[in-house]
Automatic annotation (TrEMBL):
It catalyses: L-alanine = D-alanine. Catalyzes the interconversion of L-alanine and D-alanine. May also act on other amino acids. It comes from Reichenbachiella faecimaris. The lineage of its organism: Bacteria, Pseudomonadati, Bacteroidota, Cytophagia, Cytophagales. This is Alanine racemase. GO terms for cellular component: cytosol. Its cofactor is pyridoxal 5'-phosphate. Belongs to the alanine racemase family. The active site is at K472, Y697.
Amino acid sequence: MKFSELSKSSQGEMIQLPLDITVRGLAFDSRQIAIQSGVVFFAISGQNHDGHQFINDAYEKGVRLFVIEREVKMKADASYFLVKDAIAAMQGMAKSQRSEFNYPVIGITGSNGKTIVKEWLAQMLDDQFDIVKSPKSYNSQLGVPLSVWAMGHHHNLGIFEAGISEVGEMERLERVIGPTLGIFTNIGEAHNAGFKDLSEKAMEKAKLFVHAQKVIYCASHDTLKQALTKTVSQTTQLIPWKIKEQKGKKYVLDVQEKELSFFLKYDDPASVENIMHCTAMLVVLGYDQEFIQLRLNRLSSVKMRLEMKQAINRSYVIDDTYNNDLYGLEVALDFLGRQNQRSKKTVILSDLYQTGLSSDALYQRVNELLQKNNIQKFIGVGNEINQSRACFHIPAKFYSSTQDLLESGYAPNDEIVLVKGARDFEFELIVNSLEQKAHGTILEVNLENLIHNLNYYRSKLAPETKIMVMVKALAYGGGNFEIANLLQFHKVDYLGVAYADEAVELRKNGIHIPIMIMNVSPASFRLLKEYNLEPEIYSLDQLIDFLDYYESMQDLPAIHIKLETGMNRLGFTESNLQRLIEQLKLNKQLKVKSIFSHLAGSEDPRHADYTKQQGERFERMSTTIMESLWYKPMRHIVNTGGIVNYPELHFDMVRLGIGLHGFDPTQTEQGKLKIVSALKCSVSQVKKIAAGESIGYGRSGFAKKDTTIAIIPIGYADGYLRAFGNGTGQMLVNDQLVPTIGNICMDMTMVDVTDVPVKSGDEVVVFGEKPNISELAEWIKTIPYEILTNVSQRVKRVFLSE
């Protein structure tokens, strides 16, 4: 849609339109804007937030399209659309986007389990469909349109969740999602405050399915049946399911007049209900018992809020500091009840919100749950729970605030502690105080900086130019799934990997955007179709092997043709082109998605003439191929260095690699990028070494004088190479660079801290802002790529995001 067409989907007035361009993205948080032509920033006014205050921030990040709720000081080259309700305008645009597609869309609502059902359903169907789904738990009035906007022509199934907190909200979300199929998970007391009772809440949630063809629900929830019967269209088929029989982990499911037996790997009540919703949906979609069981066998747990960690004094802490509704407390107590590491169990709980119950009724219910689950000690935090202390009949203590609890000196002893509270209580401070500290080596990956770098390179591109991001080798050491997931959310067009197994792991972890594989062996051909992967084809022999493998198929995986233009690695030479063209003409079922090549020296101005020769050769060779085809594939040749230095060679797509991680190989744009990764650890021990004593293996390090050394828990097995030994490498300790001394060990490194005040536990920066990867590379005469990709998989990755 063009920005000028906004009035078709939203009521409002265009008050300035200097340039009419295609809408490519929606944003309401200026911190998370992906710079590209066509992003619309919605200035949303709320009780604690006014998006109009961030219009300039969005403008500085490249946004030129704005939806506003009141007139503001306008930039001359920006377009403004004035509306009464910016959220409604966003929903209107998403509804328009939804109307462009007619593939099935599954809508999910209910009080609990929406996100897990969505994620598990996607896991079970990810090799059958190209799925677009809500990221994380994006189910609100804002989250739903952002999710639906991601729908594309390369998808063939949508899965979106919808949550509401008051009457009237679901009609708006139904118009955006337009589900053809539905799952109503359950109805409970979470977010009760906006409804008179459970019946009204069920009726409101059921409005998501008013035009759906089929809706699945658990037969034991009578409230759901009543709400659906009164709400949905007469043409909507209601499909209840129930568990007919259970023996151990074997369950017999009764759905659509069928009785099907399944073995479940997760057998807690909440998981069983969530799994059965997914299973019933697969039955409705026409899959048989054998297929469904195979999918159930491979289900992996969804990373949610409950995490059990080792704590001080031989204890454990269960971290559930995400929310504090009553149903969630039941789930957490069930989880606590299944932990047998310690017999003594304690619950720390904050005030509960939006339950719809009076304080006395609420905390009497909490007391009953605690007694039922054999909790020996209770700690309540908050004014409301403190005032209701008479409701509790087990040993209990109460504090007005989290700080009061922390200052009390509370410490568990041989027990398991459930910590559950609302975000505004900052219960993570309690978890941090109880958690057993481990001084391990970690690689911090700053996701905010990574997106900043992505946006910077996007700003170098024409609006129509696509972007492929290389995520091979664990995304240059940073962690491929986590980074790929973020890139997918920020709408990159393609991902590139080196080998098929890297791509398969991405698919298994929910990555659905196109993936190009740069080196595919015949042994990997079987994976391409199954996981919707696109291989690079670089020789006639490889192409013939590929065609022979898929000889009996009409629907082949799409391919990317690699040309040799001067890198002298893989690729078709100019002398091979006619034979390549003959094969393409003989096999018209084969789709060429792109034609591409590699630049050998795009980052170095000394090779400018050679790079231009490569570009000319690529233009000539790719044109020859395209003239023989009946369609136009994409073309791409530039890497990170080429994005900056050769805009004339951007063609249809560019490939971004090391620049994403904050390193500019051209060294001309470095100041505009942000450092993404920091390798850190802590001092294990500090000791005095007398003059003349040797240090480490091989006795290559000697103390020339009385010396203080610090032992750092990182070695060549972690990726800190032996080449950094004997003073070649330096680390940052207490803001001072200190040299290595002696050889690097497999798991440890010694540094000279004679002139630096250091103690055990002090933080050590191996690389980050200072020293940076360019400096480390220079010290050992290598390149920054090698520094990043050498970081071992055993090093824990910690992802930072504001």
